[in-house]
Amino acid sequence: MFRSRLFKFALLALLALPQHSLLAAESVLHSPSGLEAIVPSPDLPFQDYVELNSARIREVLARDYYALREEPFGPSYDIDKTVAMRAPYQWQPSGASCADGQPRMGFLLIHGLTDSPYLLSDVAASLRERYPCALQRGLLLPGHSTVPGDTLDMRFEDWMTVTEYGVNSFREDVDALFMVGFSTGTSLSVRYVDAHRDDELIKGLIMLSPAIAARSRIAFLSPYVRWFSDWLSENAERDAGRYESFSMNAGAEFYELTSALSSASFVPLAVPVFMAGSAADATVNMEAAREFFCTKTPRGARTMLWYQATGLDEPPQAQCDGLLVLPAQSTAHRVINLSHTSISMAPDNPHYGMDGDYSICLQYGDGSADYARCVSDDAQTVYGESGLGNDGRFEGKLIRRGSFNPHYAALLDHIARFIESVN
Q: Quick check: 269 and 194 in contact, CB under 8 A?
């Protein structure tokens, strides 16, 4: 009875959103491009996969962004740079020390929902620096890196197919593979190891902003609401790294991907697990991630970093071995707490970092005076998760949604210790 009433209330609330939030814009960016990322055949060489997707991204960017606006993402982002940010990639072992006979290790990186491979670019670079003899590959999930209109038709089954393709691409090249996911990429990692429990190639899961369940209590409605509404939000697309619009179908496919992960019947994993996330995360349910960590991952082979702003964020509801509560705030970086989008990015990232080119200020309304001040006035802004403060301010200052992790270097040290402990 309660669920039925909640369904009716939430459906009415969603349908009562302003018209511009529900109706698909009559713009090329909010319609399918016809050149969405490919679902590769099992025998496609990975470099061919990279090149085919890169060519598609370039064609869409040229046609739907750069032909219509001279600098769609700002003066620092020509088409070559934006393609490189959004495309899948592979990095071969490098350096004279990478001789035959050394243990062969690989990293498969999987980005999140409405994101691109760029959201794991700092992690990729850090892993390459620490493990120059490792083979590294970054996937591109269908529906991403082109136009947000391509999220209208994407299906999570295709993401799972691409994930399996990515894992299988390593079989002849490495002896140990770590799956590194951000947000939805973590869900795909868990789904893969759940479906392939005898796969001895996978040595560990590294899960950043772990997506076991959505934060919203009415996420279960999204598979139904998408039949009435295309968009939860439509925004001007100014971010070279990810989409700024969010379709109902994106939420629905995420829900269907993750719906089984919080089930009591989910069989605990045997593969070692590393997690890191923010207690304040407004996108995914961190308590669901904590519960999964404590009950579905192997004792003695797991670590979870729970970033918490003292006196502001909620602590974990229960403790278990391997769970570490760490401070989130950083006065030197004007960081009040950490957001979903901040965990994987370094403070000096040229796009999302403290002095980066892009600030997340959409909560103030594109074109408003507060939006302009949030983007341009460092002295009057702080960084935190959506929902921080009151009336769009924290202690009188405007709030940029967190886009970098001031504790990034320590996070990478924790990840390295985890890799070395299980490899």
A: yes
Write out the E strands in 60-201. Answer: 89-91, 105-110, 135-138, 176-182
- Both tokens of residue 147? 């136009």
286 closest CA partner among 339, 342, 222: 339
Burial of 140 (0-12, 13-18, 19+ CB in 10 A): buried
DSSP-based three-state secondary structure for 235: coil
Asked whether the beta carbons of 135 and 164 are under 8 A apart, the reply is: no
Give the tens place of pLDDT for each residue, 265-319.
999 999 999 999 999 999 999 999 999 999 999 999 999 999 999 999 999 999 9
Amino acid identity of residue 415, one-letter, is I
CA 261/CA 264 separation, integer angstroms? 9
Predicted TM-score (pTM) of the model is 0.93
pLDDT tens, position by position, 127-181 = 999 999 999 999 999 999 999 999 999 999 999 999 999 999 999 999 999 999 9
Of the candidates 354, 148, 382, the residue with the CA atom closest to the CA atom of residue 248: 148
* Strand extents, DSSP E, 116-158: 135-138
Which residues have CB under 8 Å from 318's CB, separation 6+?
290, 291, 294
| Alpha carbons 366 and 87: distance in angstroms, whole number | 27
Residue at 282: amino acid letter: A
Q: Which of 61, 108, 110 is nearest to 84 (CA)?
A: 61
| Residue 128 token pair | 């390459």
The CATH code that applies to domain 2-208+214-260 is 3.40.50
Give the long-range contacts of residues 40-45, CB within 8 A, separation 24 or more: 40/162, 40/165, 42/165, 42/168, 44/165
Residue 340 identity: H
Q: Is 142 exposed, middle or buried (0-12, 13-18, 19+ CB in 10 A)?
A: buried
| Residue of 358, 322, 380, 390 whose CA lies nearest to 119 | 358
Where in the chain are the domains? Answer: 2-208+214-260
Distance from C-alpha of 21 to C-alpha of 338, rounded to nearest angstrom:
27
